[in-house]
Amino acid sequence: MTLAAAASLPLYRRLAGDYAQAMGLGTLQAGERMPSVRELMRRHQVSLSTALQMLRHLEEQGHLEARPRVGYFVRDARALDGVALTREPDLSQPVQPGAQAHFVGINEHISLLLERGRQAQVHLDVGGCTPPPELFDHRFLNKTVARLLREHPQLLTQGRSLLANQGNHPLFQQAMARHALAAGIRVAPGDVLATTGNSEAVSLALAAVAAPGDMVAVESPTYYGLLQVVESLQLQTLEIPCSPRTGLSLEALELAFQTQPRLKAVVVVPELQMPLGTRMPDAHKARLVALCARYGAALIEDDSYGLFVEGTQPVKPLKAWDSVAGQVIYCQAFNKSLAPGLRQGWMNAGRWHGRVQMLKFAQSRNTQTLGQLVVAELLGSPTHQRSLERLKAQLKQQREAMARLVARHFPIGTRMSLPGGGLCLWLELPEGFSSARLFGDALDQGIRIAPGSMFSNSGRYEHCLRLACTHPVDAAVEQALQLLGAMACQQLGQAPRG
Amino acid sequence: MTLAAAASLPLYRRLAGDYAQAMGLGTLQAGERMPSVRELMRRHQVSLSTALQMLRHLEEQGHLEARPRVGYFVRDARALDGVALTREPDLSQPVQPGAQAHFVGINEHISLLLERGRQAQVHLDVGGCTPPPELFDHRFLNKTVARLLREHPQLLTQGRSLLANQGNHPLFQQAMARHALAAGIRVAPGDVLATTGNSEAVSLALAAVAAPGDMVAVESPTYYGLLQVVESLQLQTLEIPCSPRTGLSLEALELAFQTQPRLKAVVVVPELQMPLGTRMPDAHKARLVALCARYGAALIEDDSYGLFVEGTQPVKPLKAWDSVAGQVIYCQAFNKSLAPGLRQGWMNAGRWHGRVQMLKFAQSRNTQTLGQLVVAELLGSPTHQRSLERLKAQLKQQREAMARLVARHFPIGTRMSLPGGGLCLWLELPEGFSSARLFGDALDQGIRIAPGSMFSNSGRYEHCLRLACTHPVDAAVEQALQLLGAMACQQLGQAPRG
After folding, report:
1. Nearest Cβ partner of A142 from B153, B161, B199?
2. Per-residue model confidence as pLDDT tens digits over A164-187
3. Would you say residue A308 has pLDDT above 70?
4. Whether residue A85 has pLDDT greater than 80
5. Chain B interface, mutation test: which of A109, A118, A233, A368, most B Cβ atoms within 10 Å?
6. Which of these CATH numbers, 2.40.10.330, 2.60.40.10, 3.90.700.10, 1.10.10.10, describes B3-78?
7. Where is each HTH gntR-type domain found (chains A, B) (predicted)?
8. pLDDT > 50? residue B434
9. Do the chains contact at B162 and A117, CB–CB below 8 Å?
10. Residue A364 is nearest to which of B118, B200, B234, comparing CB atoms?
11. Residue A34, CB half-sphere, CA atoms under 13 Å: how many?
12. Fold of the domain built from segment(s) B100-134+389-491
């Protein structure tokens, strides 16, 4: 940046530059606490607004980390040198439903990618986001199963009685209602529906609220599984831009409601959005619920990742603001947090409860009882709580190690999400980079990544990719990231880094 | 019957009448073997055809029981006095798709019936057809689970790897392929898809082969769950009359193909059709497969009840005739035969394999692994074989006891299916009887039945009902059947019997 250019910057940007430089020089060490807002105002003789803007800018640039109610702390800035945070979306483009050529075929596309992945000799999968079995406490789980079978010897031979809660075990229903209450949601146990993971829940929710040809607003980028469900049900996706800071753009969504009469539902991951890792601010959540209620649209909330939020602040789901209308369909799965092999989930379908129950009964009858009882038993137990905390700490460490490797090896100009929890990083590489090409090149080396094209029907994330942080970062992972980075640099005509 | 009327009967009917009388008088005892065809020809100086016709007529009337390759035996005829076998369907009526008013709302209707059942104080459920837990070997099952968790300690913490068979465990795939081979079906292990019971399988199959507005031919009467799936997918049902002797009318189906261009699929339960209990003759199966191939329609085969066929003759699924086209989608669940609580099923989707796999992946991802391994482990084991034989023997005994109770207590003019296996009886009462009314009256007495209206969208089975034979017949069941019979007699203005 030239001196002239620097001089034309607003005051907060110039101050931020000074602090960033101090961090680069090691004057401010990683982990050190920043001066308070009051102290900054006094020291630099600036307004409250300038001090706050400066801190937020440094946070957005990845230099600072905010710890709620404590203050701002210096990140390991040198390690992330050259990597900026994910860009805000361009809201100047009108939101349009995907053209026919775009929104049809995501199932085909995903299937082909998965099939290629299966046929290759993959030795490192940084594409899929399920933690490996080592990160779970299988001994405790297996003991619990053994005990449940002793206590309920006929668990596996007892069919769903048509008389009892349509296959939803009362113990599971009670446990979920208690679990929800802790997050600020009031759900009657009888309104808890057990599901096979989260895909079934979201799929049932969409089938209940929309008919073929209807439109569903989704976050952009979004989890490819959702695009598949939407396509399977012959619905149309409407991709709403997502800010990496606040999530789904409410302005764009409101415009969509005003212009698209067939828009019947919105699917949102409010906490640790997949793949961006965004945590939607509470004020934003309240406005989103109100907006959907105003337009009579169903708000389908996937809260499976809320369980992975790091820190001690309570996580409040969208459903907590849905006090009257029953407009929010709440879905949560415990695959990734408790036991991937059980595939246990649940949902509360708000005012669509009857219709969802009917569809569930028609399409797959009841969900296996064993999984329901295991989750009911474990969810509130201190052993599981400890085990989840361990898992989160491990994931945080892995995520940060992966971020450092990306910063070290990936091309100059790479941007990255720095989520406050969760299982992945979202990378945005400079224009000209093709994640599809990297996908192929990496597979040849036995490494599987998830290319950006999986996360949208619009084709606008071709230069992006999702990197799973589910593996402990050992020498093999380090080597793989170095290799991926080098291949990406080569694509862009940059010299390999690191 | 007057003498004149008797004289006008064909010879085989008169001879049959003589034998029926002999049985009524006890001259021929229950369990006694009938003379051979050769002996009958000699004794009555009749042709081979007359002797055979007489035997078949007596069998159809419920007087005789055929034991393959051994001969005909006298049933407990006095006990079934007054009860004839289910009538042949009236094929003179053209097959028409249900009127809008008919085919929409079955989900609503079923849900209301189930809800009423749930709210009542039911002490005997002869409506649902899942055997109670006592009829299964839960000790052996639980031991197997414990052993599997020892052998595969990470079974519950291992997520579906995107790299391995899309959530279908290789051991399960191999076991199903072996199991299928024993029934004369060649399936590559890789083409085995694990499903949650049978509802998911049939639902996926229909979603893969038909689009909203398309038509699906179903047996009439049929399992209400199928009507629900068809409606959920916004398809239209076309009810094809079923002979209680040979199953789905091929003539009616062919006519339907010729007149209904949107007819895309046929769903059939070829063995122990639900609710009629019909076993489709092999020649009929071959013609059905050929017919569907000729018209390019998918033939969806639900073979879950084939496992319940009694006797030692091998049971050959429709899929066994599907050697080239891949036109048959084979579905089988082990809920009712192995472990109701596991809800494990599988399917082979023939030439729609890719599409079904894609839909399954989109809608519910993989099926739990534990259930797959339990079934893989048990299906071929001698212990399970013995346990299944015990279950079948018990069901046979219960079914026959129920049939005797119906014969003793139900109105004169009641007709009944006498299936060669399975979990239920289908009753057809004289016109004027309302099973809906009996459903309500019975519920008030704590007894749940399945009224005929659940098994069709056409309203033509209002005078019918399905009676589950899953409970051991004790004094309570006897009393309940006496009560049901008395209520039915009262509806028809008959004096209570028995």
Report:
1. B153
2. 677 899 999 999 999 999 999 999
3. yes
4. no
5. A368
6. 1.10.10.10
7. 9-77
8. yes
9. yes
10. B200
11. 28
12. Aspartate Aminotransferase, domain 1 (3.90.1150)
Among residues B268, B228, B354, which one has the least CA distance to residue A207? B228
A102-134+385-491 placed in CATH 3.90.1150.10: yes
The segment with the largest mean pLDDT, out of A17-31, A216-230, B25-39, B311-325, is A216-230
Residue B78 has pLDDT above 60, yes or no: no
Closest-CA distance of chain A to residue B131, Å = 8
* pLDDT tens figures, A158-170: 886 544 677 899 9
**B136-384 matches B3-78 in CATH topology:** no
Q: How many angstroms separate the CA of residue A397 from the nearest CA in chain B?
A: 21
- For residue B296, what are the contacts with CB-CB under 8 A and spacing of at least 6? B327
- What is the helix (H) or strand (E) element at residue A333, kind and residue range? strand A328-333
Return the CATH class of domain A138-381: alpha beta
Asked, as a colleague might, if the bond just before A68 is cis with ω within 30 of 0, I would say no
pLDDT for residue B100: 41
Dump the DSSP string for B40-100. HHHHHT--HHHHHHHHHHHHHTTSEEEETTTEEEE--TTTTTT-EEPPPP-TTSPP-PPPH
Q: What is the pLDDT of residues A238-280, one digit of tens each?
A: 999 998 888 999 999 999 999 999 999 999 999 999 999 999 9
Distance of residue A159 Cα from the nearest chain B Cα, in angstroms: 4
Query: Which residues of chain A neighbour B362 with C-beta distances below 8 Å?
Result: 107, 199, 203, 225, 228-229, 231-232
B417 pLDDT above the threshold of 80: yes
Answer yes or no: are the C-beta atoms of B94 and B37 closer than 8 Å: no
CATH architecture of B136-384: 3-Layer(aba) Sandwich (3.40)
Q: Domain ranges in chain A?
A: 3-78, 102-134+385-491, 138-381
In a mutagenesis test of the A interface, which of B163, B222, B336 is the best target, namely the one with the most A β-carbons within 10 Å?
B163
Identity of residue B188: A
pLDDT band at B94 (very low <50, low <70, confident <90, very high): low
Q: Tell me the pLDDT band of B115, cut-offs 50, 70 and 90.
A: confident
| A294 SS3 class | helix
Test B162 with A127 for CB contact under 8 angstroms: yes
